[in-house]
Design brief:
The chain is globular. By secondary structure, the chain is α/β, with parallel strands linked by helices. The protein has a seven-stranded mixed sheet, with helices on both faces.
Length: about 270
Amino acid sequence: MTLSFHRAGPAGARPVVLLHGGGPGASAMSNFGRTIPVFAKRFDTIAVDQPGYGGSELGEMTGQYFTHSADALATLLDELGLDRVDLIGNSLGGGTAVRFALRHPSRAGRLLLMGPGGLSLNVFAADPTEGVKRLGAFGAGPSRERLAAFLRTLVFDPALVTDELIDERLAAASTPTALRALGAMGASFTDPRTYEEGLLWREAHRLRNEVLLVWGREDRVNPLDGALVALKLIRRCRLHVFGGCGHWAHLEKFDEFNRLAFDFLEGDQS
């Protein structure tokens, strides 16, 4: 299995991998299309379509999705000749970044995680959350209305969910291949044989990376209280919260997020 990716930035610059979230129709360009050219001014920026999304096939998935995606990423980095990278992951991508760091610790540098799946543990919020319920509803019966309802749970400002975005994501999510991938991914989070690999918060204490957790105060997919256990357990960890912001901090707080990310990735934190 070969992962599709978009790469931009100066040769020899610090490599940074961007890992998108897991909603229907998601892809590297859908999530990070605005981000890539900004980061490419300073970093060797690699935005990856995770297995089953964008131009990447799902491949044969025998374990939990985070593990499957993390190992596919390791293979891609081998092909690109990159020994070590920093990672930025949103939601599902945050979970993949954490599993990658746990399975390949020498290859993972700093981790910037936005509402990361698997690492988030709801202490006070209801579980499943509103966003997860709406994601499940789309998977059970895909429709434009259900997709729009899910996308609106991702943002604080509903104006960001335009008709064009809904149509674009629906087209990408409605192919037989995409629907099979969504089903297989979802099943890996509930299958008794594999789901425990997705409980990344139980392994958070093993991370030795510099970690920046970024959360939207109004996140309705992975609510803010989900950050508390990771913040407690990860040795080198900090938390930044954006008010008036949902699950897409990198889009809803675009300029502020970019400044925060640059400071974290380039700052002296030893």
